[in-house]
Every structure is written in C-alpha cells, then in structure tokens.
Write a structure and sequence with these properties.
Order of helices and strands: HHEEHEHEHEHEHEHEHEHHEHE
CATH class of the largest domain: Alpha Beta
Largest sheet: 5 strands, parallel
Shape: globular
Structural class: alpha/beta
CATH topology of the largest domain: Rossmann fold
CATH superfamily of the largest domain: Aspartate/ornithine carbamoyltransferase
Number of helices: 12
Number of strands: 11
Strand content: 5-15%
Length: 338
C-alpha cells in the first residue's frame, strides 16, 4: 500500500510486505519511546484525536506517539462533548476538523462510521475502532507482539498455534487480528467461545480459504493445550441489546494461574487487547497471572506505542528523516523497558 497521505481504515489494506515495513520502522522508534533521545520531526504538526467511544490505551498511546515525534495533540472525547450531540453530520465534522489538523485518529461506536468520516476529510484518518467492525492498529501491535514473543522462543508466526478466547463475535480486535494472520502460513487456530459468540462466519471462512486449521471449543481448559499464544478477549457488553443479555455470558470463560498451570505448556504466551474486566463476575484474565513471565499484556501496550509512531511517521512521510531532528532529552527519565 501507499502510506504517504493515506487513510488507515482496515487491516485489509495491508499485505505482508507492508506489515514488515511497519515493524521495521517500529523498531527504530524504541530509543524515542524509551526516552533515550527525542525528535522534533513533527514540530508544528497537529493530531486531532476524535474519540466518540470510551478509550484509554488507544487514545493516549496515539497522543503520546504524536507527542514523541514532536507534534501537538487536540482531543474530543464522547459524542456528548461534540457538536454531533447537536445533530451535526460526520461529513460536516470531518470537513471542519480536517481544516485544523494534519492527521485525525477517530473512534466511533457505529460500523463503517470512520470510513464515512474519512470520505469528507481533507487529511489522513486512522480508524481507532468502528463499532464491532475493525481496529487495524490494534491488529498490527498484536501481530508485532506475537512476532517478538515467538522469536524469543525460537519460533515464528508461520506454523504457530493460537487460541482465541472469549467474545469472538463482537470483538473487533480479534476480527482485525484474524485478517492480519491470514497473510501468514500454516497457522492452527483454537476458537474458544460460547456458541452464541463464535467468530463471524465470513472471517472464519477466510481463515479456512487461506489454509488455516480451525478447531472450535466451548471450554477454555479443552482449547489451550499445545498452543503458542492464548489471546483472551473481554465480553463486549456495549455491543449487546441489553445488560441482561450480556450477563448470560459474563464469566463463562476465565483464565487464571491454576488453569494455566494445569493445561498449558510452560512457555505459552498470554495476550489480551485490554481492557480486561477485573470485576469478580467477569474476570476473564485473573490478576493472579500478573507475575507470570509469559503474560505479555504490558509488552503489548508498549509495542502499541512503537507501532503507532511508525504508522504516523509513514503517513506523514517522516519515517526516513527522524534522526535529522534528534535532540538529547533535558530531563531525568526513569523510563525502563521490560
């Protein structure tokens, strides 16, 4: 794909070479993310973070990524805090905000809303999640994490065994990740979910079409043996018609240290796109896993910063000039990487 000046709306835009390119640039971002040095390559540029649905990691990491590249960030959070609450259209919002910005990152609760917004925008738009549809930057950071975790154990994405656990129907992170993994070869998927929350048929069919092996389970214990990666997801309560309907599935699939020890190989990597629901009636990934060295969720979030810095630099055409604007940091940083 052509990154320069273009929108990032779907993981379908990427081929394998594109992903390799993003990962290569992401690795160059490590010194900036670790506060070993800083760059002013985007000094004067403005990112508009338009988050019309709740977010912590995605919103703040995109903002931090832009700041670390030297740019400035403006934010709107929640539909009620914007003129959308007054009836303004996405078209008008896009036309106006793109006049204030060099790049827009947008999240919206409705499927395909970011696509609609991008069609009226005068600057590039990155989809930070559109309802149950897609979350392309999450898929890229997840894939980057899978790559690094497997390489640290002498393995690769090709030929790996991956368990996807939880709400596979509404989880947009899972949907985008499956599309990204379709670019690799001979992956075996264990799909673990309640019957009513299975992976959408069209995504499952694409996996099969691309030669992936599919196994389906409705209990976590039966599906996490002999896998390299366990990718746990939160129940997407906000996508259900009512809390009562969502509560039928809350807490059905839980991973804790005891279940992990009894059923998993010792080096099985545990991932989660976050947030994890730590309330007692949900608790899909127990906090008793926090000290497990194979828990990669915080490495995932660190990798998210690198990947988002890479995407921003590629879209705005500064990926090859970062070091031209390097400076020493002027503060004492206690930032440590793990």
């Amino acid at each position: 794909m052509e990154f320069l000046g273009n929108h990032i709306l779907s993981i379908d835009q990427f081929d394998k070479d594109d992903i390799v390119k993003v990962f290569s640039i992401a690795e160059k971002m490590i010194p900036y993310a670790n506060r070993e040095k800083k760059t002013r390559v985007l000094q004067g540029a403005i990112l508009s973070n338009m988050f019309f649905e709740a977010s912590t990691r995605t919103r703040i990491s995109f903002g931090s990524a832009f700041n670390l590249l030297g740019g400035e960030v403006r934010e709107t959070t929640g539909i009620e805090a914007s003129s959308l609450a007054k009836g303004e259209s996405l078209y008008d919002t896009a036309r106006v905000l793109s006049g204030y910005s060099d790049l827009i990152v947008m999240r919206h609760p409705e499927k395909n809303s970011v696509q609609e917004f991008s069609e009226a925008s005068r600057v590039p738009v990155i989809n930070a999640g559109d309802g149950e549809n897609e979350h392309p930057s999450q898929a890229l950071l997840d894939l980057f994490t899978i790559k690094l975790e497997l390489e640290s154990k002498g393995k690769s994405i090709d030929g790996s065994n991956i368990a996807l656990v939880g709400d596979l129907k509404f989880g947009r992170a899972v949907h985008s990740l499956c599309k990204a993994l379709n670019l690799f070869e001979n992956i075996s998927f264990n799909l673990i979910s309640p019957e009513q929350l299975k992976l959408p048929p069209e995504i499952r069919q694409d996996l099969v079409y691309n030669g992936m092996k599919i196994n389906e389970f409705n209990s976590i214990e039966s599906g996490i043996g002999d896998v390299d990666i366990i990718y746990v997801t939160r129940l997407q309560e906000e996508r259900f018609d009512s809390p009562k309907e969502a509560n039928k599935y809350k807490g059905l699939l839980k991973l804790n240290q005891n279940i992990y020890t009894e059923n998993c190989e010792p080096n099985t990597v545990i991932m989660h796109p976050l947030p994890r629901d730590s309330r007692p009636d949900a608790n899909e990934l127990d906090t008793d896993m926090n000290e497990n060295p194979n828990l990669a969720i915080y490495r995932q979030t660190d990798n998210g910063l690198l990947v988002r810095m890479a995407l921003i630099s590629l879209i705005l055409g500064v990926d090859q000039t970062l070091s031209d604007y390097d400076e020493d940091i002027s503060w004492v940083s206690s930032k440590k990487s793990n």
